[in-house]
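ingest -> validate -> predict -> emit
validate: passed (alphabet ok, no gaps, 173 aa)
predict: started
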Amino acid sequence: MLIPVFVSMPNTLSRKQSEAQQLVLGELGHQGIEARTLGRTDYPTSFPLREVLTLAKHCSGGVILGLSQFEATAGTWKKGTPFKSAIGKSKSTQFPTPWNQLEAGSLFALNVPLLVFRESGISGGVFDNGVTDLFVHPMPRPDAEYNEKKALRAVLQKWTAQVRAHYYGETLG
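emit:
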């Protein structure tokens, strides 16, 4: 029997992002995990935020895929404060879907094991190191070498053990 986990990810992806997403979802399947996502496996009958919580309550873990959905080449962070900084012309800033933050917060509040991946350039909220007790992992590359894929499997195996313990109501020591 597959164990359901909530996967937070955007619905519209580039080819490269789609390949990374398929790699993660494929590895989850190999671990006996069923990825559940609003708009892909489950469709809302109520307003989407309520559906996120309803679906998350029936899952024993969560995976957050922080994939870029918006790029800014100009702008100002913390305008009008002593911490003001500008996005320069030579550097852009990447933003994930805001749903990643909402869904991660819901899953965190439900106290399920979380696994967070972020695409290069993604930061803020759940994607910042030290915000939660989670390690934020780089998004796996579909063309990764053997050792990188082996490391991904090791991370997934450890997380899957926590998911199984949650599912079966056990505690890990």
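The two ends are 24 Å apart (CA to CA).
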